[in-house]
Design a protein that fits this description.
Elements (H helix, E strand, L loop, with lengths): L9 H7 L5 E13 L3 E7 L7 E6 L5 H7 L5 E10 L7 E12 L14 H6 L8 H23 L3 E2 L5 E2 L11 E2 L26 E3 L4 H11 L1 E9 L12 E10 L3 H22 L1 H11 L3 H10 L3 E4 H9 L17 H11 L4 E7 L15 E9 L3 E8 L4 H10 L8 H8 L5 E7 H9 L20
Parallel strand pairs: 3-5, 6-10, 12-13
Antiparallel strand pairs: 1-2, 1-4, 2-3, 4-5, 7-9, 8-9, 10-11, 11-16, 13-14, 14-15, 15-16
Helix pairs in contact: 4-6, 4-7, 4-13, 6-8
The structure holds one RNA strand of 75 nucleotides.
Length: 466
RNA sequence: UCCUCAGUAGCUCAGUGGUAGAGCGGUCGACUGUUAAUCGAUUGGUCGCAGGUUCGAAUCCUGCCUGGGGAGCCA
């Protein structure tokens, strides 16, 4: 039975199964209801939120032993045929003819047939994928990832694999994790007593990447349109529901493109992913709408059907200065907008995603293209209701002299950027791109409150279990 | 890193100075179609850790640990 080629995914049975079809399903018991002469069991194999209801008549061979063994959490294979269900709750169910129990669950199986707190589930990250919520999250997460690849494949973007280990701290996007093979108890030192990295694995300090953007820029100057999609790392001591030490990032980079094109891509991109998930995971989205966030589906439809609001940073500041709302942090031109400001714009003024552009030069990175006014750069942030900044992007500075000047002004060592400057010396092009935090997208999609519950194995300060 | 709230049975929680509780779960039993089945019985505790106050501490005080929420930083 274990190698039966006729094994059907439960999702397929529920959606497409017809009465009298003979099938084998394999999965884990979610719940069992013993009656006098037969037993109901719900089997789930992860293919869908709902399991299939299996009716096991007492006449099935080995009934007593099998039913005793198939408690909540047990793994089973069941042969039988599909039948129309005489009761409410499901279109189709399964009449069992043979049962194999691979392993029953010990009495202390921690997942009960009731709600658990997400805090508790995080302590059993090896078992929580079997819950309704985490199951739905992981299916939606997977659909988002597939949507991303399909979106870029349709537009002939090249998926580039940016390195995870890097020797450059170019972007300065945050604290970096060091990568070393030194024995921490005896690190070789130089004459000044500092670590002698010439004796380390790479012969120099190395780190886990914080962003693949600069590598993407390299690749974009050969392939025109590219994107990265992979893990990135920040050693920041951030303890919030929106930060992880290890998270996935999507970073498209387009040659021969300006900020306008960048914004258009970002908007199309979000609309595409939301449409894709609504189409491919309707049951899971309905579940989130009912149990996690009653706005989930309305929000998805809002994203899909409405133009994003676009306005400049300068106009946003004027709007914030002239509104009735009192803010904890006062607003004036030149400040970096606080969470409360961004949320006010996205949630209360426009009630949909907002793209802010043309930020003051001082509060943005050196590589963003300087505008003619000299005071702003061609940057854009997409602010989402409930989440805040979900996408950050810019047109890049393609003029060699301006870029050199801005590196110096930022107090950065120009020699470290020799290859980045080379891209401007050899066939420079206007180009633009953005970065999207993948887990924040999944949070936004599902309405999940804590980012630790939208990644299978969250990495946060003081926590790397599992 | 800062502010704030919390930690009591496997889980979710009640208990604010005087014999440690409930629901769910687990176990056993009942029940002719259940849907987180239902009903009955039963099982289950280092009250986060360490110290202190008190005749007496889950409860009050101090320190520490762990977790949540918020802020900063950011994606």
């Amino acid at each position: 039975m274990t190698s039966s080629p006729a094994t059907r995914r439960i999702l397929d049975c529920l959606r497409n199964g017809q009465p009298d079809e003979t099938v084998t399903v394999k999965g884990w018991v979610r719940t069992k209801r013993e009656q006098k002469k037969f037993t109901f069991a719900e089997i789930n194999d992860g293919s869908s939120l709902k399991g299939i209801q299996v009716v096991i008549d007492a006449s099935v061979p080995g009934y007593a032993e099998a039913v005793a063994a198939m408690n909540t959490g047990a793994s089973v294979a069941i042969d039988g045929k599909l039948v129309e269900s005489p009761a409410k709750g499901q279109r189709i169910e399964m009449q069992a003819s043979a049962i194999e129990v691979f392993g029953s669950a010990a009495e202390d199986y921690p997942l009960q047939k009731k709600r658990h707190s997400f805090e508790f589930l995080r302590t059993i990250a090896h078992l929580r994928p079997r819950t309704n919520t985490l199951g739905a999250v992981m299916r939606v997460r997977n659909a988002c990832a597939q949507a991303i690849h399909e979106f870029f494949r349709e537009r002939e973007f090249l998926w580039v694999h940016s390195p995870i280990i890097t020797a450059s701290d170019c972007e300065g996007a945050g604290e970096m994790f060091g990568v070393s093979t030194f024995d921490p108890t005896k690190i070789p030192t130089d004459k000044e007593g500092k670590p002698d990295y010439s004796k380390d694995f790479f012969g120099r300090p190395a780190y886990l990447t914080v962003s693949g953007q600069m590598e993407a820029e390299i690749m974009a100057t050969a392939f025109s349109n590219v994107y990265t999609f992979g893990p990135t790392f920040r050693a920041e001591n951030s303890n919030t529901s929106r930060h992880l030490a290890e998270f996935w990032m999507v970073e498209p980079e387009m040659s021969f493109c300006d900020l306008e094109g960048d914004m258009n891509l970002a908007e199309e991109f979000l609309k595409y992913i939301f449409s894709y998930v609504m189409k491919h995971c309707p049951e899971d989205m309905e579940f989130f709408n009912q149990r996690i966030d009653k706005e989930a589906i309305a929000r998805a439809e809002n994203i899909i059907n409405n133009e994003f609001e676009r306005l400049t940073y300068t106009k946003a500041v004027e709007l914030l200065e002239n509104c009735d709302r009192k803010f904890d942090y006062p607003v004036e031109w030149g400040i970096d907008l606080q969470s409360e400001h961004e949320r006010y714009l996205a949630e209360e003024v426009f009630k949909k995603p907002v793209i802010l552009t043309d930020y003051p030069t001082e509060i943005k990175a050196f590589y963003m293209r300087l505008s003619d006014d000299g005071k702003t750069v061609r940057a854009m942030d997409v602010l989402a209701p409930g989440i805040g900044e979900i996408i950050g992007g810019s047109q890049r500075e393609e003029r060699l002299d301006v870029l050199e000047r801005r590196i110096v002004e930022a107090g950065l060592p120009k020699e470290d950027y020799w290859w980045y400057l080379d891209l401007r010396r050899y066939g420079t092009v206007p180009h633009a791109g953005f970065g999207l935090g993948f887990e924040r997208l999944v949070q936004f999609m599902t309405g999940m409150g804590n980012i630790r519950d939208v990644i299978p194995f969250p990495r946060t300060p003081m926590n790397a279990d599992f």
